[in-house]
Amino acid sequence: MSEFRLAFPACVIAGKHQLTTEDIGLLRKHTFPEGIRTADDVVAMLALNNSCPAKCPEWNSFFVEQLAGFIVNYSYPQGSLDEINVAWLIRMVATDGVVNSELELELVLHVMEIAVNVPDELRAFALDQLRLALAENVGGYRLSRAVDRKGITRQDIDYMMRVLRGISDAGVISAPPLTWGVMMRIAEATLPAGNHPRWADILSALQLADYAEAPRRSRWLRIVDDSFCNETAVA
C-alpha cells in the first residue's frame, strides 16, 4: 500500500460520488494553487480521477490541461519530450500497452500537440490504440468509436491525422520506423472493403523516413506506482 495521502480538501473530494465545478475551484485554490508542479501532484490528480465515479464536464479539460502542462512544460526537457518522459507517461495511462480510458487517451494526444518534439515511441503508442480497437476490441479508443467495425471510419481517419500531423508536410507523411510499423499493422487489421476512401490516400502518402535514433539518456524520474494508480479508494 502506498504511503501517499491526500491533503485537505482533496481527501474529502476523493470520497465523493460526484466531482463538481465547485470541487475544481477548491482544488485550484488549495491543493494546486500553482497548478500541477510535482510528481505528488500527478498522483493526487490520478487518485481523484479514479476515486470519483461521476465528474462534471469541466473536470476533463482541467485534468488534461494540467497534467499535459506538467509533463511538457515542467518536466525535463521543458517544452519537449524524450524517451524517459514518454515511458513514464505510457506507464501512467496504460496497462500492458492499452490505454485505460478515453480521458487518459486525450491526455496523450494533448501532450503530443503541445510538445515541440514527439519521440517515435509515443506516436506509435497512440496509433496502436486504434489497432487495438480494430484487432482486439479493447482500450480507451475503442470506447470512443462511434461505429464498432473492422473497417477504417472517418473518425479513425481524423484520429490518425491528429497523431500524424507533426510528421505530415506537403502531402507526405514521413513516418519513423515504429510509427511505420504500427501503420502497417493497422492496415493488416482492417477489412479493405469497409475502409473510408481517405485511408488509401494516407497509405499512399506514407513514406518510411530516414531516422537516426536519439542517444539514450539516463536520469532520475519518479514513476507513479502502478498499484496506486489503479486504486479507486483513497485513504
Main sheet properties: 3 strands, mixed
The computed structural class is mainly alpha
Radius of gyration: 19 Å
Number of strands: 7
Uncertain ranges: 225-229, 231-235
Shape: globular
* H/E element order: HEHHEHHEEHHHHEEHHEH
The domain tally reads 2
User: What is the end-to-end distance?
Assistant: 10 Å
Spatial order of the strands forming the largest sheet:
5-6-7
Strand content: 5-15%
Fraction of residues in helix: 40-55%
The DSSP helix count reads 12
Task: Give the overall average pLDDT.
Answer: 89
Describe this structure in words.
By secondary structure, the chain is mainly alpha-helical. It has 2 domains: 68 residues, no CATH class; 134 residues, no CATH class. The protein contains 12 helices and 7 strands. A 3-stranded mixed β-sheet has the order 5-6-7. The longest helix is centred in the first third of the chain and has 17 residues.
Keywords:
mainly alpha; three-stranded mixed beta sheet; two-stranded parallel ribbon; disordered C terminus; 2 domains; 54% helix; 235 residues; globular
Give a quick precis of the structure:
This protein is mainly alpha-helical.
